[in-house]
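Q: Could you fold this chain for me?
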Amino acid sequence: MEIEQAAKALKELGHPTRLSLFKELVKAGSGGLPVGDIQGKLGIPNSTLSHHISKLITVNLIQQKRDGRTLFCIPQYESLSELIVFLQDECCLGDNANCKVEDGEDPVKVGGCASTSLSRSTL
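A: Sure. Below is the predicted structure, expressed as structure tokens.
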């Protein structure tokens, strides 16, 4: 992920309503949620919700899929993973004294703030 792409995604997630929307979708799982359910959970008007959804679509954090008359918003976990890896990519590289990473280990996979199973090599 390039820095410009990460900055755009973080900018869109920086709005409280969009962050709440995205968190609801992530909690819902890979099937996503119908737009009507999202509106009910967030308690915002349709036009406002549409605006926030379109912002998250433009940075590929969600997609929409129609099933009959129901429109679903689906979180894009691959994009979320890429963003997380981008943020953690160089974790601990400048702080060798306090780093829990041994020589040759991937700092994204071990210790401290990088104790996640995500890795640059898996994306």
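A (continued): Residues 114-123 have pLDDT under 50 and may be disordered.
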